[in-house]
Structures are given as structure tokens and as C-alpha cells.
Amino acid sequence: MTTASTPPKEPEDPRPSMGPVQRPRKLGRWMLFVVMMIVAVIMLYPFWVMIYTSLKSEAQFLAGSGFSWISWSSLTSVIPIGQEVLSSTIVCAASILLILIVGLPAGFAFSKLRFRLSTGIFLVMVSAMMVPLQAILMTEYVNVSRLHLTGGYTAAVLVYAALGTPFSVFLFSTYFRGVPDELIEAGIVDGLGYVGVLWRLVVPIALPAIATVTVLQFIQIWDDLLVGLFFIQNTSDRPITVGLAVLAAGRTTSIPELMAGSIISALPAMLVYVGFQRYLVKGLTMGIDR
Amino acid sequence: MATVSVNAPKARRLTLKRRRQLAGVVFALPAIALVIGFIGIPIGQDVYYSFTQWDGQTATWVGVSTWTQAFHNPNLWTALRNNALLLLSVPFALGLPLCIAVLLHQRVAGWRIFRTIYFLPTAISWVVLGLVAERFFAFQGTLNSIIHALGFSHFSTNLLGYQSEALLALGITFIFTMIGTNTMLFLTGLATLDPSLEEAARIDGAGRWRIFRNITLPHLSRFIQLAFVMTVIALFSALFSLIFVMTGGGPGYATTTVEYLIYQTGFNQGDFGTAALYGLILFVITGVVGIVQLRLIGSSE
After folding, report:
1. Do the interacting molecules here have an ipTM over 0.95?
2. What is the DSSP letter of B239?
3. Which of the four, A199, A279, B153, B184, has the lowest number of CB atoms within 10 Å?
4. Inter-chain CB pairs, A–B, below 8 Å
5. Which residues contact A91 (CB under 8 A, 6 or more apart)?
6. Which segments of chain B have a pLDDT < 70?
7. Distance between CA B209 and CA B125 in Å, rounded?
8. Is A109 among the domain residues?
9. Do A116 and A251 fall into the same domain?
């Protein structure tokens, strides 16, 4: 190593002592790059499997060689993909809308319009974030069945909204704490009323928080299996994750077609993900990173 | 006269305050109702129905006999053991993302692209990741292709096919699914680290490892705690999709966790009462983990 260190070529080099360190550092950088490439290959593996496998017929898949578009062209006859994507979209949109409708005023109330016991109620509400649906699966299922809500999307939307509300209330109230009280008072003095203040003054400020809730909930609900599986009764109303999971668990559908369906299911969430990454990060670290 | 002039504005302020409180109650009510109706009440019902024999239609009170039967049921212990064994994956689900985040933080050329690539699998449903993992571990899957390509042509694995190994495959898949989220958390934590601190340590002659141990790691502790809690909660309550797609809980009960046992007991065996009881057990487990997280959030304020 020491023999490799040459005297500085130019006498006016400002950092002659950096000479010997330069080379191993550069080597380290290359090693780092190689490691990162390997990790990238591993993380891209699911996409490679989906694309590669979907471009085969069932026979080609079993044989292990050859390519064809047949799994894509026959996809709609095996999986009602259009209907399922539509169902997923409706359930997502309705659930997120309901979460915002109940979450925004509640977040406003818990941060700016405190009432008796509001702190305690808020804490209980936030703890509800931790309750997994599986823990209440049976009683929830029987309740919504007795209320005849499992026919369309109603039960799924209500359950998604209930599960998403605690987090959104937490996020909104944390965000609203930064809104100055004077702004709200000024709005009241101007005769806007509390609904007007919320709608005209607070909501416009809260757009980044609304975006965070929307993006997080979209990915969560779009990717979820459990609620769609148990709270949507008609097979014709199935969201796409349920369609894929049921076919996969049945083990009779050809794998290439399942993979083609998987790609379609993955695309919307990936686009949202890449487009709105920063809102996701904000939501994830809410509470510890302020 | 004096009492009137003092009391009048006070009374008006009180009514203003009351109006604000009333608005608060009205604004909070829909969210409270939704959460009570669809989360709070079902938990209460869990408690009641765990003392009954229940098929979803009629429930008959049987007292603690559901409890004693459940705790004598080997399947519950198998499921709890599976969950406990899966906890062994948590160090990997935290350690690997920590390494990746530190790598990304070095800001090698193209690190933004790498970051997006590493996070991308997080966007996909665990249903789809389960499908892909099933293809990876299958007898004619990628894992065996890799083993054969490395020269061990007469050695093949079939992890998902054996009781003793299926849980390992599930654990590896779980680690993979957690990498994106945890890397994102750690990277956010690293971004808030003051670079001049590391610089000062370097000038003082501290090596890379010492800088990492004494400066970077303590700075990340809060993020590591949060990632730990999120990972453990996911382990108890988010594996359903993976299990449903990859193994169906099998072979036998080899990959049945508590959350999957609830589904099997309730929907496959029609024993809603015992399933409600298992739900209660899951609620207590995640509750304990959740309290830890709440204390973390609370202590930062």
C-alpha cells in the first residue's frame, strides 16, 4: 500500500495527505455500488418473476422454456379482471372519502375544540389503531351479517373506514395543533361558524396531511385481503386481491395467468407509491419525527 | 352594579367556550361512533362470546369451559409456538434494512434510483408477494434453480412441502416484505442526523465502526424502537395474506399462526365461540406491544 502512494504530482495540491487514502476509498465506493446492485436485483425479483412467468403459456411454464402472449390474451376469461379492478377502486374511493369525512372534523375537535374528556377519548381512539381485524373477525362478521350489510360494498367500506379512522384522526389532530388559534377565532368573529372555519380555513391548510392519509390508506386498502374476503359476499363484487388469493389458494388456475393478474393488481399501488413517496414517509414517521 | 359589569362578559365568554366545546363534541362524534361501533363493541362481544358455545347463529352460555377446552387444544399451542418461532425473524427484518439504509446514506452514484427500487416491493399486496414467494420456494422454483446452477445438481429443496421447514420459508418471506418499510424508516432517521457530528468524530480519529456505534446507532434508537414495534405487530396480525396464499396454514398446522387459527376455527370449523376467544388472545398480545408504542410516542412529546 505504501509503495502505491506517490508524491503529489503538483506541488500546489491543497490536500497532499489525501493521496494514500484516495485509492482504497474509491475501491470501497465500487464495492458499495456492487452490493447495492445485488440488493436491487433481490428487491426487483418479484417483478421479474411476475413479468417473466406471465409471458408463457401453461405448457411453456411447465416445460420451463418458450414465450407467448396467450396468458395475457386469455386473462379476462379466467379472471374477471375489469370487474375486480372496478370493485377495488370503488371500495378504496368510498372508504377513503368516509375516513376523511369523519377524520377531519374529529382531528380538528381533538386539537382545537377540546371538550370534557376529549383527551381521554382521544387516547382510547389512538389505541384503537393497534386492534387487528383478526381479533374481532368473528363478532364483526356476525354483526354486519345481521345488519344485512355484506350484500354490496357497504360492510367492507364501513370496516375499512373504522380501521383507518384512528390513524387519520391522530395524524390530523397532530397536524392541526400547528394551526394558530387566532385564525380560528378570526373565522368565528367573521361569522363563518365552526363548519365554515373547518371547511374554508383549516382544510386548505391541511392538504399535505390529507394527501398523506389518502396515499397511505389507498395502498393499505388496495393491497388488503382480509376485509374483502369476509365482508363482501357476492363473488361478482370481489376486489382484485381477493380474486387472486382465492384462485391461488384453489391451486387450479394456471400460474402464468395468475402472474398477469398480479401485475395488474400491483400497478396502481406502485404508481401511487413512486409518485407520492414523500407523503408516505411523512405518515410513517408521524409521532416521532417532528 | 359592579357585580353585573364583571359577570356579564364572563357569562358571554362562558357561552362562547360552551359553543366551542359543543362544536367539538359534534365534530368528534361520527369518528367516535364509527370506532365504537366497528371496533369497540366487537371487542366487548369477543369477551361475552368467549364464554359461550356459538355457531354464529345461536350462542349458549357455557362459562369457562370454552377457555379450558381452548387451552387444552394443542392447535392453540402450535399456533403460539409458530408465532414465537417467527419472532426469530425480527432481528433480520430490522438488521438488513439497517444495513441497506446505511448503504443508501453513503449517497453512491444513483442512490435515489436504488432507493426507489428498494421501496418498490412495499407497494405490492402481500397476496401478490405470497404468490411470488410460493414460486420461489416451489419444487420447480427459483431456489432450486439457483442451487442447481451452483453445482449441487442432485440436491433439491421443497421448503413449503415439509412440516419442519415451511415456517422457515414463511419467515424468510416475512423478512423480505418488511425490508422496504423498515429501510424507509431508518433512512428518514439517518436524514435527520447532523453530518457535522460524524465529521467531528472522524477528525478526532474515530473509525467507521466506532462512529456507527457511538453516534449513528444512538441517534437511530427511536426509529429502531418504532420499527421493532411495527414489525412485531405485523408479525402477529399481517401474515394472513401470505399464509392464505402460500400454505393455507399447512402442512398440517406447521404455518398456522394465532391470526390464521382464528379464521380456521371460525370459518372452517364453525366454532365461533372459540374463535372469538382466540381473537381476545390476539388482542391482548398486540395490546401489550401497542402500549409499548404508545409510550414511545408519548415520551417524545
Report:
1. no
2. -
3. B153
4. 288
5. A153, A156, A157, A160, A221, A228, A232, A239
6. 1-14, 294, 296-301
7. 37
8. yes
9. yes
Residues A67 and A196 in one domain: no
Yes or no, beta carbons of A138 and B128 under 8 Å apart: no
Judge: B128–A50 Cβ closer than 8 Å, yes or no. yes
Instruction: Using an 8 Å CB-CB cutoff, list chain A residues near B35.
Output: 125, 128, 162, 165-166
- Please answer yes or no on whether B23 and A131 come within 8 Å at the CB atom: no
SS3 of chain B: helix, strand, coil, percent, to 5: 80, 0, 20
Split into its structural domains, chain A has a count of 2
Length of chain A measured in residues: 290
Q: Map residue B58 onto helix, strand or coil.
A: coil
* Containing structural domain, residue A163: 80-284
Domain match, A205 and A107 both:
yes
| Distance between B42 CA and the closest CA of chain A, angstroms | 5
pLDDT tens, position by position, A93-149: 999 999 999 999 999 999 988 888 989 999 899 888 888 999 999 999 999 999 988
Task: Report in angstroms the alpha-carbon separations of B25 from A4, A104, A119, A183, B165.
Answer: 75, 13, 12, 20, 54
Q: What is the DSSP string of B166-225?
A: HHHHHHHHHHHHHHHHHHHHHHHHHHTS-HHHHHHHHHTT--HHHHIIIIIHHHHHHHHH
A158 contacts B38 by C-beta, under 8 angstroms: yes
Judge if A129 and A48 occupy the same domain: no
Least confident of A154-158, A206-210, A269-273, B6-10: B6-10
Distances (CA, A) of A106 to A19, A280, B24: 62, 22, 8
Residues of A in contact with B118 (CB under 8 A): 39-40, 43
Exposure string for A179-202, b = 16+ CB within 10 A, e = fewer: beeeebeebbeeebebeebbeebb
Tell me the nearest-neighbour CA distance from B64 into chain A, angstroms.
19
Beta-carbon neighbour count of residue A280 at 10 Å?
A: 21
What residues of A are in contact with residue B255 (Cβ under 8 Å)?
Answer: none
User: How many Å apart are CA B69 and CA B56, to the nearest integer?
Assistant: 19
- Cβ atoms of A240 and A266 within 8 Å: the answer is no
Residues facing residue B54 across a β-bridge? B59
Tens digit of each residue's pLDDT (9 = 90 or more) over A169-190: 999 998 888 888 888 888 888 8
Q: Please give the DSSP secondary-structure letter assigned to residue A236.
A: G
Residue B250 CA: distances (Å) to CA of A247, B53, B125, B134, B167? 17, 27, 21, 13, 9
Burial label for B260, CB within 10 Å (0-12, 13-18, 19+), is buried
CA separation for the pair B281, B284 (Å, rounded): 5
The reply to whether A50 and A112 lie within a common domain is no
Q: Is residue A4 part of a domain?
A: no
Helix or strand or coil: residue B161?
Answer: helix
Dist CA B102 CA B88 (whole Å): 23
Mean pLDDT of all residues in A4-13: 43
Do A94 and A221 share a structural domain? Answer: yes
